[in-house]
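Example S7 (structure tokens).
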């Protein structure tokens, strides 16, 4: 059988070939999260605590020197409460002086300021400094570990147990990637002045200059903390935080094979998060809404929010929906500033905010007779009009 094509057939075929691919190009595709060379990892939005990427994030693993994030958090809380002052001089015990591992190089029998010890903990990852501050605050490292666990419970670290202030190996000293992200978030939000020390590039004590163990600070100017960790059992670990365009992300990688790997894998997480998500202002006080008002000289009142609704969303996503729910039986009179309704905001079908809407003007109540006349007018305006007979019906009547 022979098929014949005319010019018009070729034209139609060409149009079909052009239109179909155009539709496929418009498809919104979100890249799959990266796969990392690590035992456990998580990427969290600091504002909402939303997890953007995770793998084994609740698996209990040795945290090594990531422990010192909590050690410094407790110290920051003590300073904030007034029970500890940064200029106080801390006596150094033999126990602190002899603590093995990474060191600040403090000396037994001397005194060191709280401020210096904190930098020794944060920048130099000094085990000796961690024990010294623990003993000074709680009398012994064991008692300090109990305090760390109390703070952990308060912060919702459900899978973390601290047995010491340093992260030195202990079979029961365990944490998770998720808990470390929560802890870093709390540190950043609760004690921002204290957290600023985590961005310092180096610290010199006893004529010994040591660079910050977090080498990512020098490689990415948007990174301002937080902490590295390493033991043979834990592997190379890193908690990091980056702020870009008003959005802060926190990454945690546990159990990598080297310093280079933990930096590389952390950058993968940040690249994915910042490329594919944004902290967007969905709606704010500049947007107006009309809310129906009964028995008023005006049938509606202009209403606005008082604060903006911001949320982490996919870049390019347009699934945001807003629904206005008026106050039940809302009637005039209405005064400017009254709550006249709520705005429900949903993203991808999930309700993320319910905010009050405030009247922007007064609405006076109509008088008794005006009310009656308005009710009559509303009745007739809402009454359905009789349908006009169709042409077929007219023809049948004529016949």
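Recovered sequence:
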């Amino acid at each position: 059988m022979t098929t014949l094509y005319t010019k018009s057939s070729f034209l139609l075929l060409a149009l079909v070939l052009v239109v179909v691919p155009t539709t496929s190009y418009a498809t919104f595709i979100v890249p799959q999260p990266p796969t990392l060379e690590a035992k456990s990892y998580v990427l969290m939005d600091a504002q909402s605590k939303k997890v953007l990427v995770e793998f084994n994030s609740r698996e209990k693993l040795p945290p090594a020197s990531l422990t010192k994030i909590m050690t410094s958090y407790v110290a920051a809380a003590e300073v904030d409460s007034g029970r500890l002052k940064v200029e106080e001089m801390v006596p150094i015990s033999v126990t602190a002086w002899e603590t093995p591992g990474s060191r600040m190089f403090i000396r037994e029998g001397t005194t060191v300021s709280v401020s210096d010890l904190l930098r020794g903990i944060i920048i130099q990852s000094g085990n000796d400094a961690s024990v010294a501050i623990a003993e000074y605050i709680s009398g012994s490292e064991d008692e300090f570990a109990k305090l760390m666990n109390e703070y952990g419970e308060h912060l919702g670290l459900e899978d973390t147990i601290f047995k010491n202030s340093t992260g030195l190996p202990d079979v029961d000293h365990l944490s998770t990637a998720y808990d470390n992200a929560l802890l870093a978030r709390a540190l950043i939000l609760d004690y921002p002045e204290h957290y600023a020390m985590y961005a310092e590039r180096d610290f010199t004590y006893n004529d010994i200059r040591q660079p910050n163990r977090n080498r990512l600070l020098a490689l990415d100017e948007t990174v301002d903390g937080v902490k590295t960790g390493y033991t043979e059992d834990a592997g190379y670990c890193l908690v990091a935080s980056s702020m870009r365009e008003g959005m802060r992300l926190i990454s945690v990688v546990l159990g990598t094979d080297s310093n280079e790997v933990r930096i590389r894998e952390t950058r993968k997480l940040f690249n994915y998060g910042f490329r594919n998500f944004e902290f967007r202002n969905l709606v704010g006080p500049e947007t107006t809404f009309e809310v129906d008002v009964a028995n008023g000289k005006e049938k509606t009142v202009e209403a606005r929010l008082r604060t903006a609704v911001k949320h982490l969303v996919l870049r390019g996503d347009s699934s945001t929906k807003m629904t206005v729910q008026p106050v039940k039986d809302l009637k005039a009179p209405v005064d400017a500033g009254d709550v006249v309704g709520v705005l429900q905001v949903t993203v991808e079908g999930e309700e993320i905010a319910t905010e009050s809407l405030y009247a922007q003007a007064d609405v006076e109540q109509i008088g008794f007779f005006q009310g009656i006349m308005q009710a009559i007018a509303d009745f007739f305006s809402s009454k359905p009009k009789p349908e006009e007979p169709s042409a077929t019906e007219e023809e049948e009547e004529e016949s």
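Notes on this example. DSSP finds twelve helices and 16 strands in the chain.
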